[in-house]
Amino acid sequence: MFVSLGHLPGRRRLRCYTMFVLHESQKLQILYESLEKSIPESLKVYGAVFNIKNKNPFNMEVLVDAWPDYQIVITRPQREEMKDDLDHYTNTYQIFTKAPDKLEEVLARPQVINWDQVFQIQGCQDSLKEAIRKISASKSVRVDYVKTILIMTEMPVEPNDDHVDVMESLKTPKVDDDTEKGSFQNISLDPSHAALVNEQWTFGKNDRSLKYIERCLQNFPGFGVLGPEGRLISWIVMEQSYEMRMGYTVPEYRKHGYMKKTSVHLMNYVIQKKVPCYFHVSEHKEEYNQALRDLKFKAASCGWHQWKCSPEKYC
């Protein structure tokens, strides 16, 4: 059973391990400020709550186990969004917990997670994995687990004179005169670029991921670099939890700093919003990791985690 917390008295304490939908904007702001104190472990939920507070373009909602002293927070699409049982891009849950020992009980509830669908769980806590492992085994659900390096800016994020005005720079595409091979232009992406982004995205390359990328580009910023022939050669896109994702540079243009330049554009956009910039990268992408370190990012010890869960009937 779900309870809306939008109209509960100010500090009524709820101590059961059902989950409650948090609606009221003031409570969402309190939660957002509280999650900031738990960064980097709370980053995926923190970024999703930021988007929910700001127009909520992916029609997501926030669940908590208690208020105001919550122990578990889950962000997910509203039920009407999760129509396709095979669309794990849309059917994505972001989780942050202060009580890993209580998580198994919460996640097992069908009102919290629809275990009859293919879906993803994302988070920045290794402690999530035991509860997910136990429940998925009991429900005959296959789990494909990915762990990568979480890279982020220091907190707090504040604009300063070293950061360019991204929106101004995009009004007139900037030409890089110092390149060895003619003119290069920085551009903002739109849904027409989705097919190319999807073709090179490790987690994509299918029709459902294409629709997801199109939706990201309709609602969030994406930046890229055009080569001399007018071909997109490097890009990066923001997604529903405010993470900078889908970064790619075509092989013949690597090691020339184009991903770094593209990342600077998106990083400055995020800095204007005064929220953390963050990526995840695989351990073997050392050149990319070095570029991020050059931009004053740091690797977080908690890591980036994703669990793709597939019921037996879809395997």
Q: Can you put this structure into words, describing what you see?
A:
This is Glycine N-acyltransferase-like protein. Belongs to the glycine N-acyltransferase family. It comes from Panthera pardus (Leopard). By secondary structure, the chain is an alpha+beta fold. The chain has two domains: 20-148 and 305-314, Gcn5-related N-acetyltransferase (GNAT) (Aminopeptidase, 3-Layer(aba) Sandwich); 166-274, 3-Layer(aba) Sandwich (Aminopeptidase), CATH 3.40.630. Helices cover 29% and strands 24% of the residues. The chain is built from nine helices and twelve strands. The protein has helices spanning 25-36, 43-53, 100-107, 129-138, 166-171, 194-200, 207-219, 258-273, 286-294, and strands spanning 20-22, 60-64, 72-77, 92-97, 119-123, 141-152, 185-188, 222-226, 232-238, 244-249, 278-281, 298-311. An eight-stranded mixed sheet has the order 1-2-3-4-5-12-6-11, sandwiched between helices. A hairpin with a 7-residue loop joins strand 2 and strand 3 (72-77). Helix 6 (194-200) crosses helix 7. The chain is globular and about 60 Å long. The model is unreliable at 1-15 and 159-181 (pLDDT under 50).
Mean pLDDT: 85
Distance separating the two termini: 30 Å
Give the strand line-up of the largest sheet: 1-2-3-4-5-12-6-11
Summed up, the helix count is 9
Main sheet makeup: 8 strands, mixed
GO cellular component, one term: mitochondrion
Organism: Panthera pardus (Leopard)
Keywords: Acyltransferase, Transferase
Family: Belongs to the glycine N-acyltransferase family.
